[in-house]
Amino acid sequence: MKTLVLVEHDNAEVAAATLSTVKAASSLGQEIDLLVTTSSQDVVQKASKIEGVSKVLSFVDGQFGNEIAEDIAECVVQVANDYNFFLASSSTTGKNNLPRFAALLDIQQISEVIEIIDKTTFKKPIYAGACIATVKTNQEKNVLSIRTTAFDKASAESGNAEIVEMPLTDTSSKKSAFVKNELTESDRPELTSADIVISGGRGMQDADNFKLLDGIASKLNAAVGASRAAVDSGFAPNDYQVGQTGKSVAPNLYIAVGISGAIQHLAGMKDSKTIVAINKDEEAPIFKVADYGLVGDLFEVLPELESKL
Amino acid sequence: MKILVPIKRVNDYNVKVRPNQSNTDVDLSNVKMAVNPFCEIAIEEAIRIKESGNADEVVVVTVGDEKHQEQLRTALALGADRAIHVKTENPLQPLDVAKVLVKVFEKELPELVLMGKQGIDGDHNQTGQMLAAMLGLPQATFASKVELQSGIVEVTREIDGGLETLKAELPAIVTTDLRLNEPRYASLPNIMKAKRKPIDELDLGALAVSLENRVELVAVESPAERQEGVKVESVDELVDKLKNEAKVIE
Ligand SMILES: Cc1cc2nc3c(=O)[nH]c(=O)nc-3n(C[C@H](O)[C@H](O)[C@H](O)COP(=O)(O)OP(=O)(O)OC[C@H]3O[C@@H](n4cnc5c(N)ncnc54)[C@H](O)[C@@H]3O)c2cc1C
Ligand SMILES: Cc1cc2nc3c(=O)[nH]c(=O)nc-3n(C[C@H](O)[C@H](O)[C@H](O)COP(=O)(O)OP(=O)(O)OC[C@H]3O[C@@H](n4cnc5c(N)ncnc54)[C@H](O)[C@@H]3O)c2cc1C
């Protein structure tokens, strides 16, 4: 039996999350194939270069330009016989797609896997990362969503997989349709794969002040993140949210500015290598996880920090 | 139009849940329980749709033991019209919950199912998508805006790159994200009124759903604790540490 990994992309580039998912898949010790649904041949070519992959099942068609979970599930079900493991990252795309086909195949999915112990035993965080559960599957076929921050990345260059063009049935779902995207424009590195992340919380006070993070982010080539409170208050877009119910990040350096350190926020960043906290309240819980804490008013600290980098 | 809202009983989000002594499960004894926050958002949205005249009835359903009635009462106090309690002593996994909800759906035939995107306990984020798949219905997950038009629902979704808008034919399954609304609190008169609203009890056994023990819990541990670091006195000291000690910037 083989492992199937769903490729995530924006119809131009393969997402870094897919490289980590392939790496995770390699620890299952079986042949790995990829499944790509896209409107662009380009992505298929790029996917075929990923290290350690045997075949790329390529579904290329205009209908796949915007991914509708219903359609993707149909493609997976079509090839499911050859596979006993189905993996994708636990990005919003993975979260949207995996349970849909898992249910069609009558499989109980295992979400947010951080460690593959063997082919039946996995670790995953529960309760906002307050506990780590070890679970054992009794199923012959399994669907795993992978917390990508817990795995290295497979090389995007060293592979040479065979591309298999898949016959297209009309999977375009009749019952739902894409209307529009409003994507956040940014030239910064992507939040979940950036080396350095600087995040702002409610302490930033408003959207204008939130821009104080930008200068530092530019100097450090960092991604900008936010707490839920900052997103709810409209200081930052929803896709900046780091935490239990937002994105998980584990950069080399995470700088938390005006963030108190609620368990839901920590759930998304406490695996970062080095953590810096800047907060005027020396009792703030964020200092408990910080390697370096600076007690001070962020409105004084941030301009000084920017000038000294 | 009828809206069905599946809700889940979970720990209060302020409680830090810990493993039990033998590390075989979490210790939920003496933990304050509540309606899952994402389910509260789903209830609120359903009630707002009803208040705007676009729905006639809001029905809440939960699958679980006797204590789950507390959460159903909360939902009724918030404005749901009636409740269904599918009774079982076993903790079910999302696939099982979805199978149970299929039966409830077939009985109630709602035009819209509004539910949470994830339980804040298991953090699975699966049940809604599974229910949609089994019913062959469209799904719109992680909703931050829900607009009903005739026969369709337009949903703005929170995705990793920003926002995406989808249109789906009704009936559809919509799962809620944090920015959809800010749930209200129940007023005392409504809490009193809720005591008289009906809760239908169904025995899980009577629903003819076959459940299997597919994924077993083997152990529950605390994660490795981070060492608390040091406080630096100045920006200069911070920059110096980051460059020369942690070596994470140049
Ligand atoms: C279901 C659910 C899911 C959630 N999911 C998430 C999630 O994914 N991510 C997340 O982040 N949260 C999440 N939360 C919210 C979480 O519980 C906290 O409310 C939130 O993280 C608080 O954000 P904050 O630290 O920015 O704000 P606050 O807790 O208000 O902290 C602001 C901090 O700024 C400091 N400050 C203020 N002014 C200054 C200044 N001038 N200089 C320096 N410091 C200053 C204060 O001392 C304080 O510590 C969730 C909650 C629920 C119920
Ligand atoms: C520590 C731990 C141990 C566990 N052990 C076991 C075990 O030994 N065996 C086992 O079978 N399962 C076990 N579970 C699974 C647990 O019962 C699941 O968390 C639950 O079935 C649903 O998962 P979820 O809420 O995370 O799903 P999600 O997919 O995250 O939930 C999304 C939405 O689905 C709806 N929903 C979910 N559950 C219900 C419900 N019961 N009634 C109505 N609506 C609902 C709600 O609208 C909710 O917002 C365990 C979970 C944990 C955290």
TrEMBL record, chain A:
<feature type="binding site">
    <location>
        <begin position="227"/>
        <end position="228"/>
    </location>
    <ligand>
        <name>FAD</name>
    </ligand>
</feature>
<dbReference type="GO" id="GO:0009055">
    <property type="term" value="F:electron transfer activity"/>
</dbReference>
<feature type="binding site">
    <location>
        <begin position="258"/>
        <end position="265"/>
    </location>
    <ligand>
        <name>FAD</name>
    </ligand>
</feature>
<dbReference type="InterPro" id="IPR029035">
    <property type="entry name" value="DHS-like_NAD/FAD-binding_dom"/>
</dbReference>
<dbReference type="InterPro" id="IPR001308">
    <property type="entry name" value="ETF_a/FixB"/>
</dbReference>
<dbReference type="GO" id="GO:0050660">
    <property type="term" value="F:flavin adenine dinucleotide binding"/>
</dbReference>
<dbReference type="InterPro" id="IPR018206">
    <property type="entry name" value="ETF_asu_C_CS"/>
</dbReference>
<dbReference type="GO" id="GO:0033539">
    <property type="term" value="P:fatty acid beta-oxidation using acyl-CoA dehydrogenase"/>
</dbReference>
<protein>
    <recommendedName>
        <fullName>Electron transfer flavoprotein subunit alpha</fullName>
    </recommendedName>
</protein>
<dbReference type="InterPro" id="IPR014729">
    <property type="entry name" value="Rossmann-like_a/b/a_fold"/>
</dbReference>
<dbReference type="InterPro" id="IPR014731">
    <property type="entry name" value="ETF_asu_C"/>
</dbReference>
<dbReference type="InterPro" id="IPR014730">
    <property type="entry name" value="ETF_a/b_N"/>
</dbReference>
<feature type="binding site">
    <location>
        <position position="279"/>
    </location>
    <ligand>
        <name>FAD</name>
    </ligand>
</feature>
<dbReference type="Pfam" id="PF01012">
    <property type="entry name" value="ETF"/>
</dbReference>
<feature type="binding site">
    <location>
        <position position="202"/>
    </location>
    <ligand>
        <name>FAD</name>
    </ligand>
</feature>
<comment type="function">
    <text>The electron transfer flavoprotein serves as a specific electron acceptor for other dehydrogenases. It transfers the electrons to the main respiratory chain via ETF-ubiquinone oxidoreductase (ETF dehydrogenase).</text>
</comment>
<keyword id="KW-0274">FAD</keyword>
<keyword id="KW-0285">Flavoprotein</keyword>
<dbReference type="Pfam" id="PF00766">
    <property type="entry name" value="ETF_alpha"/>
</dbReference>
<keyword id="KW-0249">Electron transport</keyword>
<keyword id="KW-0813">Transport</keyword>
<feature type="domain" description="Electron transfer flavoprotein alpha/beta-subunit N-terminal">
    <location>
        <begin position="3"/>
        <end position="182"/>
    </location>
</feature>
TrEMBL record, chain B:
<keyword id="KW-0249">Electron transport</keyword>
<protein>
    <recommendedName>
        <fullName>Electron transfer flavoprotein subunit beta</fullName>
    </recommendedName>
</protein>
<comment type="similarity">
    <text>Belongs to the ETF beta-subunit/FixA family.</text>
</comment>
<dbReference type="InterPro" id="IPR014729">
    <property type="entry name" value="Rossmann-like_a/b/a_fold"/>
</dbReference>
<comment type="function">
    <text>The electron transfer flavoprotein serves as a specific electron acceptor for other dehydrogenases. It transfers the electrons to the main respiratory chain via ETF-ubiquinone oxidoreductase (ETF dehydrogenase).</text>
</comment>
<dbReference type="InterPro" id="IPR012255">
    <property type="entry name" value="ETF_b"/>
</dbReference>
<dbReference type="GO" id="GO:0046395">
    <property type="term" value="P:carboxylic acid catabolic process"/>
</dbReference>
<comment type="subunit">
    <text>Heterodimer of an alpha and a beta subunit.</text>
</comment>
<dbReference type="InterPro" id="IPR014730">
    <property type="entry name" value="ETF_a/b_N"/>
</dbReference>
<keyword id="KW-0813">Transport</keyword>
<feature type="domain" description="Electron transfer flavoprotein alpha/beta-subunit N-terminal">
    <location>
        <begin position="23"/>
        <end position="211"/>
    </location>
</feature>
<dbReference type="InterPro" id="IPR000049">
    <property type="entry name" value="ET-Flavoprotein_bsu_CS"/>
</dbReference>
<dbReference type="InterPro" id="IPR033948">
    <property type="entry name" value="ETF_beta_N"/>
</dbReference>
<dbReference type="GO" id="GO:0009055">
    <property type="term" value="F:electron transfer activity"/>
</dbReference>
<dbReference type="Pfam" id="PF01012">
    <property type="entry name" value="ETF"/>
</dbReference>
